[in-house]
Specification:
Structural class: mainly alpha
Order of helices and strands: HHHHHHHHHHH
Shape: globular
Strand content: under 5%
Number of domains: 1
Length: 200
């Protein structure tokens, strides 16, 4: 079964939007709640993560719309779509990790977060979000294969449409990288959280 291109793009862009929304929401969480940080003793990491509820709500709406897109093309999603939310979790973990690092850096240098988000946005062009990774250009193909985001985007899409994991090892390594990034983000956040109130 070949995936209709609009469906391919919809799933890819939805997953990419999930990553970017997670990063920006967590990164801006401290600055957005600066009054609460200064006046109360609420755990700062909780304030940084408060916006994730809205991100997850939008993600659920996106999954419902995905089923509508399947119906529009008169296709039945593969039963593997039941794993779609689970195999998407590493994207959220990666976004939270990067967001926490940007959150603490952003309290010192406000311009860092938007610059970093813009640079991360460029990674979409070396990730199979809107195009297939089977490219004739060998250099670009190597870059895409080495890009962990390739596996974090392609695995949920392939499970939902074809019921396969194209590269289990690649997905496992990308998931491991996401968990490491999450750990780094949490560790970095707790190292400097006491300085946050002074910088806001």
């Amino acid at each position: 079964m070949s995936i209709p291109y609009p469906l391919f793009v919809y799933i890819g862009t939805s997953l990419w939007a999930l990553l970017m929304a997670t990063i920006t929401t967590v990164a801006n969480g401290l600055i957005g709640n600066s009054d609460l940080i200064i006046r109360t003793n609420i755990p700062k990491i909780g304030l940084s993560l408060t916006g994730l509820a809205n991100v997850l709500y939008n993600y659920i709406v996106g999954v419902v719309l995905l089923l509508v897109v399947f119906a529009f093309f008169r296709l039945s999603p593969h039963p593997g779509i039941l794993l779609y939310p689970i195999v998407s979790l590493p994207i959220i973990a990666l976004g939270v990790g990067v967001g926490l690092v940007l959150a603490v850096v952003g309290t010192v240098a406000r311009d860092v977060t938007p610059i970093a988000v813009s640079i991360l946005g460029l990674l979409m062009y070396v990730t199979p979000v809107v195009f297939n990774a089977d490219l004739s250009n060998p250099v670009l193909r190597r870059i895409i294969i080495a890009n962990p985001l390739t596996y974090l985007v392609d695995t949920p899409r392939s499970l939902a449409t074809l019921g396969v994991i194209p590269s289990p090892i690649g997905y496992f390594l990308a998931t491991l990288l996401s968990l490491v990034m999450l750990w780094i983000g949490i560790h970095a956040f707790y190292l400097v959280q006491d300085k946050v109130a002074e910088r806001l």
